[in-house]
Amino acid sequence: MYQYSEKDKQIVKNRTKEFLFQVKRRINGDLTEEEFKPLRLMNGLYLQLHAYMLRVAIPYGELSYIQLKKLAEISEKYDKGYGHFTTRQNIQFNWPKLEDVPKILEELADVEMHAIQTSGNCIRNISCDHLAGINNDEVEDPRPWCEIIRKWSTFHPEFSFLPRKFKIAVIACDTDRAAMKVHDIGLKLVKKKNEVGFEVFVGGGQGRSPFIAKKINDFVKKKDLLNYLEAILSIYNEMGRRDNIYKARIKILINELGEKKLKSLVENKFRKFADKKLSLKENEIQEIKNYFKLPISGPIKSEIPFKKNKQYTNWLNQNVIEHKLSGYSIIMVSLKPYNQPPGDATANQMKKLSKIAQEFSYGEIRVTHEQNLVLPHVKNSDLFNVWNQLKSINLATPNIGLITDAICCPGMDYCALATARSIPISQKISRYFKDQSIQEKIGKIKIKISGCINACGHHHVGNIGILGLDRNGEESYQISLGGSADENTNIGQIVGPSFPEKELMKAIKTIVKTFENNKKAKNEDFLTVFNRIGIDPFKKDLYETSNS
Amino acid sequence: MAKKLKGDSFFLSANDLKTGSVVYYDGKSWSSKIEKAKKINRNQIEKYENIAKNFENKCIIISPLFVELTDKGKIKKLRDIIRYKGLTIKI
Amino acid sequence: MKQVILKKDKILQNEYVIINDLKDLSNFNSQKIIITVEQWLANKNILKKKKNIGIKLNSDESISMIKDDIDFFKMIQFNFITFKDGRPFSEAKKLRVEFKFKKEIRASGHILPDQYIFLLRCGFNSVEIETSKKKFWLEFLEMDSGLYYQP
């Protein structure tokens, strides 16, 4: 795991000091709210429905057990005893007081954490494949690149007042676990003629107008990565629209200019402006790579304990993945327990999980963009023990990838932007599909729920996407089908008119039934069937059948 | 603020600058006790907008808004109900 | 609002005067004048005879509008319409890197002291600020550790 250098520590310390100064000026009126808002946003501090909300950065989703423990403590000391993990691998606290935030930031700095650039019109958290470094398919570990990009993008003097937010994701294999193609810039590490470089995608995004990123370069050399990113950001800063916040992302710019034009502008800028100082040298890259060496030296002989315990077996089947090194496993920790707000973890859960990670996972925890956690390196022989411990804190729900493992934004229960509630919907789904055998029969399916068009719940790329709207003061839900955030990224199609809240579950049940009725083989999953039969059978079953 | 308002009576609400808590204007100051909230008629909107602005300038509150009430004086919109009552889900 | 010029940590008076009507140009022979892009484009010929001219661009005006004449100006000023509009940061960088402009680049308009270090790092030399806010600008300068992630 990356460890802060003295420079990193000092920079975060300084930022904390600066923010304290800004808060003081705000409280005594030297800064108006209009002036303070972009500054507090750059420190991840929002004003939500009930209170302020602080979004703490978890760079590329990597946490140490020490950091997780501190997050637990902060939630107890300054908040209501829980935190919420987001679709950008960060964590949110929903009830901090403005006057406490400088203290919170100080405590975070003690464990090499911060809330820098988790909001605002700047470059946000760099997201990553949660199986980085521990899968067999990757070209090389993408995490060091996330760290290199993180540094480059932090307090960038030219790019701190962009037209809008900017999100970057990095993956390193054909399987996309980071929703790369719905990011402003998506980077894919590839190997061409024995050389490792980057495929560069630009202009993905969800929100009001979803777009899939377009490839603008087949191969950017490693040494040129930062200069190339500078070129893209510079063009965006200059040309991105500033007259309309709904048209201000780079996805709109590339759509308006066309791929070819944007590519030529970027290439031109890259040629003219490439700074030798930004060119990455092999030793610099290696220095960062050294932090990400696996804590394990090699494969071991370690067997998964066999127990005649159905719950344990279900959990092994659903939540445990083979590690790159044999003898080890990767545990997916579901934050979607039965009937609980998805993506939340209590202080107690975080504290206990921290201890589990320390003892069994070399101190490492990861956050996935689907709002679950990962224990990345667990010896097979420890699996039963770990399962028991996870079970005791309600973190062993065996539903990873199943229908109750939904992505869900905080929605109108928390968020000032929301047009409807989302959490109660995910809870209803959780209750209705509670039965494990039913879930397994339905198989792999991704439900994604957003409480407004900003799409923080990624509904556009859900196999079943649910968007909460306000129809004449009533909560109403629009369903889209066939979306996907993996390497075959696809924007879902709206199936028809939205459903009032009390009819939504019936609609979801109908959709599942239509899918089941059209399966050609037992193990066919939802997306396979949808891609074969299209949206019409679902439309028919949802809207043409008479009320029953 | 007042442009898109529908309805005849309102409460004036905001967030406390330092704590972020939801507060209501009771005629003199701000408190979380909605029972004390002052009922404002449509024709008084501008007056209370200015009052809110004053408190904003004094760094007491931020993000003032008008909460629409029903004929019976209850909060009308779900969003405002959630803002007052809190989460609709159990933690 | 009384305004002064801040150059690093020094407070100076603004030597550049705005000239509203270019017919009065001859009255300003010994002074540094600052003109708008509009004035420049409409009156290049007479203005080119003068020395010590600064030009003011609003944050929605690009240096490409004056790209053939950049060397002529003694000072180029970017006027931020709002501090949220970050285009001048890129424009200033372009001036330094692409056009190799070595003279003064100034920021004015709605800018926050919190942006001071970013401005300096992008190639700005000076800022037009409200006198009453100078202590904040200087505080930010002092807080700056000189530690950056970018060259």
Describe this structure in words.
The complex is a heterotrimer of chains A (548), B (91) and C (151). Chain A has 17 helices and 21 strands. Chain A is an alpha+beta fold. Chain A folds into four domains: 118 residues, Alpha-Beta Plaits; 159 residues, Sulfite Reductase Hemoprotein, domain 1, CATH 3.30.413; 83 residues, Alpha-Beta Plaits; 135 residues, Sulfite Reductase Hemoprotein, domain 1 (2-Layer Sandwich), CATH 3.30.413. In chain A, the strands form four sheets. In chain A, strands 16, 17, 18, 19, 20 and 21 form a six-stranded mixed β-sheet that branches. In chain A, strands 1-2-5-4-13 form a five-stranded antiparallel β-sheet. Chain A has a five-stranded antiparallel β-sheet with strand order 3-14-15-12-11. In chain A, strand 11 and strand 12 form a beta hairpin. Chain A starts with 5 loop residues before the first helix and ends with a helix. The model of chain A has no long low-confidence stretch (mean pLDDT 96). Chain B is of the alpha+beta class and 91 residues long. Chain B has one domain. Helices cover 23% and strands 26% of the residues of chain B. Chain B contains two helices and five strands. In chain B, a hairpin with a 5-residue loop joins strand 1 and strand 2. Chain B is globular, with a radius of gyration of 13 Å. The model of chain B has no long low-confidence stretch (mean pLDDT 92). Chain C has 151 residues and is α/β, with parallel strands linked by helices. Chain C has a single domain, classed as TIM Barrel. Chain C contains four helices and eight strands; from the N terminus they run ββββαββαβαβα. Chain C has an eight-stranded mixed β-sheet. In chain C, strand 1 and strand 2 form a beta hairpin. The longest helix of chain C is centred in the N-terminal third of the chain and has 11 residues. The interface between A and C is medium-sized, with 34 and 32 residues.
